[in-house]
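Task: sequence design from structure.
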C-alpha cells in the first residue's frame, strides 16, 4: 500500500521504486559498509519507509508476524539501477524460468487429452462427444473445488513444499491413464487430475510475488503463460512422434502419449523439491551451499518488494490463514468485478480450443497433420500475449488494454456463426479458428491486477484462488456449449459464444468505471481528514487491505 498523498487513481503512477539520477555525491550504504553514488540510487521520495513512524509501524508488524525476511528490512538501504537490473536478471533466471518449467509440467498433463482424442481414443474406449464433455467438466469442477483448499494448504506449509508434492502426486495419475479401460476409469482419472492440479497456478503466483514487485509481476506472468503456448508446440511435435507408436506391444498411440508425458511431469516435480527456495533469504541449503544471492542482494530483493508493497511482509511464508482473515478476504466485494471478468472473458475461445483437434479431423485432416496444424495458433498466441502485457505495462493501464482480447475474438466468433463456408471450406474454417485462437491473452494482466488490488498477503492468497475459481467456473459452463446434437456447425453454441463475448466487453468497461468511482470516493473521504488525522489514521487503523482509505485501486 502507499503511504504517500495520492493524487491519481493508480498508485503505480505515484511510485515506481526505480532508480533516478540525483546529485553526484558519495553516500554510505547502510548495509555492509559499502558506498554508492547517489546519482544511481533510488530517490528518497519513492521510499515510504523514510517516514520514521511508517517504518516503525511496519517493523512492528514484521516482528509480530515473524516475517522470514524481517532481519534484512532496512528503510535506508540504497542500491543502483545497475545492481537492480542485474538482480532482476538473476531472479528471472532462477525463479521465473523454473516457474515456467513447472507450468510446462502442468500443461503437459492438463492439455494432452485433446491430442489423445485425435488418435481415436474415444472410439477405442467406446466413448462419444458427450462423454468427452462430461469428463472435461468433471476435471474442471474438481479443479475448481480444489483451488481454495490448495491455497490454504500452500499458505500453511509453504508453496515451496506443497507445489512439488502436487506435481508428483498428479503425475502418477497422469501416467495411470495409459491403462484406461472405459468410461468409468476415464472419468475417475479426470476427477483425480482436477483435484490434484487445482490451486497449482495461484500457489505458484503467490511464490512469484515473494520475489517481484507489482509492476514486474504481470510481465513475469506473461512469460509464465507463454509457456502454455510453448507447451502446445512441444507436445504437438511430441504427439506427432508418440502417436506413431500405435501397435507397439499392442498399445494404441494415445496410451504411449499418457505414459511418456506423465513421466516428464514426474521428473519436473521431483526436481522442484530442490529448485524452490522458501524465500529470497532462504536459498542456501546443503545442496546449494552458496545460495543464489549475496547478503547485499538478499537485502535488495526483500526491500525493493516491501517498498513496492509493505503488506507483503504482514504474514510469514508458513503462516496459515485464520478463519477470520479468510472470511474478510472472501467478502472483499471490491475484487468481485475481477472475478466477474474471470468468469466470462475466457469462455468465447474455450469450446473452439477444446474441439480444435476434433474439428480438424472432421474437416478431413489426418491424425498427424491435425497435431501439426495446431502449432501456428500457439506461435502467434505467444507473440500477442507478450505484446499485450508489455502494452499494459507501458501505458500503466489494465482494463482498456485487457479488453483487446474480447475485441479480437468477436469478429471470429461472428464468422463461425454466420459465414456460410464453415466446414464446407476447410481451409477457410481453419483460418478462422487459428485467428481466433491466436488471441492476445489477458490472463497475466488480470492475475497481476487481482494481486495488486488485494493489498495484503492474506487477501492475495484467497483472491488468487477465487479469481482462478471464477475462470474454472466459466470453463465448466463453456464445456457444455458445443453439444453433440449441434454439430458440425454448432449454430446454437456459437450464438451463445457471441452473446458471452459481448457481455465480457461490457464487464471490462463496467469494471473500469467501478474502480474509477471507488477511487474518487476514497479520495473524497481521505481529503476530508486534516494532516494530523491522516497521520493518526495510518498509525491506529485496524482496517487492512484494499479497504484502507489511503489505498487506491489499479485499473
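Answer:
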Amino acid at each position: 500500500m502507499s503511504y504517500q498523498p495520492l493524487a491519481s487513481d493508480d498508485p503505480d503512477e505515484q511510485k515506481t521504486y526505480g532508480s533516478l539520477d540525483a546529485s553526484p555525491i558519495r553516500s554510505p550504504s547502510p548495509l555492509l559498509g559499502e558506498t554508492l553514488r547517489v546519482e544511481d540510487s533510488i530517490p528518497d521520495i519513492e521510499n515510504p519507509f523514510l517516514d520514521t513512524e511508517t517504518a516503525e509501524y511496519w517493523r512492528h508488524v514484521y516482528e509480530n508476524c515473524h516475517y522470514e525476511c524481517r532481519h534484512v528490512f532496512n528503510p535506508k538501504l540504497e542500491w543502483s539501477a545497475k545492481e537492480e537490473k542485474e538482480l532482476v536478471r538473476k531472479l528471472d533466471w532462477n525463479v521465473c524460468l523454473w516457474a515456467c518449467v513447472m507450468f510446462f509440467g502442468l500443461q503437459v498433463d492438463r492439455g494432452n487429452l485433446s491430442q489423445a482424442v485425435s488418435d481415436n481414443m474415444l472410439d477405442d474406449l467406446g466413448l462419444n462427444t458427450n462423454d468427452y464433455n462430461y469428463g472435461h467438466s468433471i476435471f474442471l469442477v474438481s479443479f475448481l473445488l480444489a483451488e481454495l483448499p490448495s491455497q490454504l494448504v500452500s499458505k500453511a506449509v509453504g508453496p515451496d513444499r506443497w507445489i512439488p508434492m502436487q506435481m508428483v502426486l498428479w503425475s502418477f495419475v497422469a501416467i495411470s491413464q495409459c491403462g484406461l479401460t472405459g468410461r468409468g476409469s476415464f472419468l475417475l482419472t479426470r476427477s483425480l487430475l482436477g483435484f490434484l492440479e487445482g490451486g497449482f497456478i495461484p500457489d505458484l503466483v503467490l511464490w512469484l510475488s515473494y520475489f517481484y514487485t507489482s509492476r514486474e509481476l504481470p510481465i513475469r506472468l506473461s512469460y509464465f503463460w507463454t509457456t502454455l503456448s510453448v507447451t502446445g508446440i512441444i507436445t504437438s511435435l511430441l504427439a506427432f512422434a508418440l502417436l506413431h507408436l500405435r501397435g507397439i506391444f499392442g498399445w494404441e498411440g494415445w496410451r504411449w502419449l499418457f505414459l511418456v508425458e506423465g513421466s516428464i511431469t514426474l521428473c519436473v516435480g521431483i526436481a522442484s523439491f530442490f529448485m524452490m527456495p522458501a524465500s529470497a533469504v532462504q536459498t542456501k541449503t546443503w545442496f546449494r551451499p552458496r545460495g543464489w544471492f549475496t547478503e547485499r542482494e538478499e537485502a535488495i530483493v526483500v526491500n525493493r518488494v516491501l517498498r513496492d508493497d509493505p503488506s507483503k511482509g504482514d504474514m510469514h511464508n508458513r503462516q496459515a490463514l485464520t478463519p477470520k482473515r479468510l472470511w474478510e478476504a472472501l467478502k472483499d466485494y471490491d475484487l468481485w468485478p475481477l472475478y466477474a471478468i474471470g468468469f466470462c472473458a475466457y469462455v468465447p475461445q474455450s469450446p473452439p480450443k477444446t474441439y480444435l483437434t476434433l474439428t480438424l479431423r472432421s474437416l478431413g485432416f489426418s491424425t498427424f497433420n491435425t497435431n501439426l496444424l495446431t502449432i501456428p495458433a500457439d506461435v502467434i498466441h505467444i507473440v500477442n500475449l507478450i505484446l499485450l502485457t508489455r502494452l499494459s505495462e507501458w501505458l500503466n493501464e489494465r482494463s482498456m488494454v485487457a479488453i483487446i482480447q474480447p475485441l479480437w475474438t468477436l469478429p471470429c466468433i461472428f464468422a463461425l456463426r454466420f459465414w456460410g463456408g464453415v466446414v464446407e471450406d476447410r481451409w477457410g474454417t481453419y483460418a478462422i479458428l487459428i485467428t481466433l485462437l491466436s488471441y492476445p491473452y489477458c490472463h497475466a494482466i488480470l492475475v497481476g491486477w487481482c494481486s495488486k488490488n488485494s493489498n495484503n498477503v492474506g487477501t492475495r492468497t484467497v483472491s488468487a484462488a477465487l479469481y482462478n475459481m471464477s475462470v474454472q467456473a466459466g470453463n465448466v459452463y463453456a464445456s457444455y456449449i458445443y453439444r453433440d446434437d449441434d454439430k458440425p456447425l454448432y449454430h446454437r453454441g456459437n450464438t451463445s459464444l457471441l452473446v458471452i463475448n459481448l457481455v465480457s466487453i461490457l464487464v471490462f468497461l463496467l469494471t473500469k468505471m467501478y474502480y474509477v468511482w471507488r477511487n474518487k470516493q476514497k479520495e473524497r473521504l481521505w481529503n476530508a481528514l486534516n494532516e494530523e488525522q491522516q497521520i493518526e489514521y495510518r498509525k491506529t487503523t485496524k482496517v487492512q487491505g484494499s479497504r484502507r482509505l489511503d489505498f487506491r485501486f489499479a485499473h
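The radius of gyration is 25 Å.
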